[in-house]
User: Fold this.
Amino acid sequence: MYDYAIIGGGILGLASAYRLLRERPNARLVLIDKEQALARHQSGHNSGVIHAGVYYQPGSAKARLCKQGAERTVRFCEQYGIAYERCGKLIVATDAEEQQRLEGLEQRVIANGLDYETVSAERLREIEPEITGVAALLIPASGIVDYKRICARLAELILERGGEIRLGAPVRAIREGDAEITVLTNKGDFTARTLIACTGLQADRIAKMSGLDIDFRVVPFRGEYYKISAARGELVNRLIYPVPNPSLPFLGVHLTRVIDGSLTVGPNAVLSFGRETYGANFPVPRDMADMMSFPGFYKLMARFAAAGLYELRGSLSKRVYLERCRKYCPILALDDLEPMEPGIRAQTVSSDGRLIDDFLFLETARSLHVCNAPSPAATSALPIADEIVSRALRKAN
Assistant:
């Protein structure tokens, strides 16, 4: 019998296991994942940005955890020799309307207690010659890292502390008793006193396996990226983001420096026809059935019909996608956009069609389920793990 079983080999599951073994060094712990390697989904398909916490409601858990998470991610990288860079982020307004929205965003930056600098059009040309805009905000705390490398180091630390990691073990069922809970997989059964599920794209299904009566579904959104041709060289020195459009639920395509020296642009956000379709966006029958049988899906589509069409145009036309990038980086040409594997975001949607935008935890007597961990979950993983472990320890006592 284990003391703790954790389902999910992404950054939240790994960070939670690491934190548990620090709090309870003698605990027997097993981490289970259906894939043959760790960080195969959201943790390994994100943009690699260390977010500072610009966009989030002041005083919210997301704002607090992001700011804490950015600092702790940096400290973790420094402690374990993982490459990172605090290159800073420029949020660029390209016209008067965007400049007005940028001024509103500045107030949120102040309320969230972040260091920043206002950047004029002239100053923008000096520090980023290939970027065009009428004004910008510079957020120095934003940075870049390889989250897969962080996941790999967390896994090493778990094993060093006596934890077990079982891969290639998809969950078939969960059976809960008065004193224990058992996870049934095709690699055997794992019985523990407490179960923690950090399962991202499969969160609703794992919650239902535990007998939870849920009123939400995971709706997958596909984030399509392009890699910028290496022929462009050092095109930018920082992360370049557009001013968020309040009519769109996501941030818009941005230029992102990658820690390996490459440069990407993206992502957009289009409905994915499968939860793990990283190749062509072909329909997956089970995933489509889950969406189509959920009333909240239709309400969501109706609410964001215009936004959905906007994103779809960029997905279907590389030229449309390019023009959105050229608003702030006019030097880019069609040949500069090279193919790149997409990411898929687990968006939890309520039965009334709302995007659930905050953390969502559900519990049974013996299990804790992280049913929604929205962006910036990778940046915030270490402090989120503190919350998960605190809840799990209360459950175990």
Remarks:
- Residues 61-80 form the longest helix (20 residues).
- The CA atoms of residues 53 and 67 lie 6 Å apart.
- Residues 1-87+143-215+356-397 form a domain with the FAD/NAD(P)-binding domain fold (CATH 3.50.50.60).
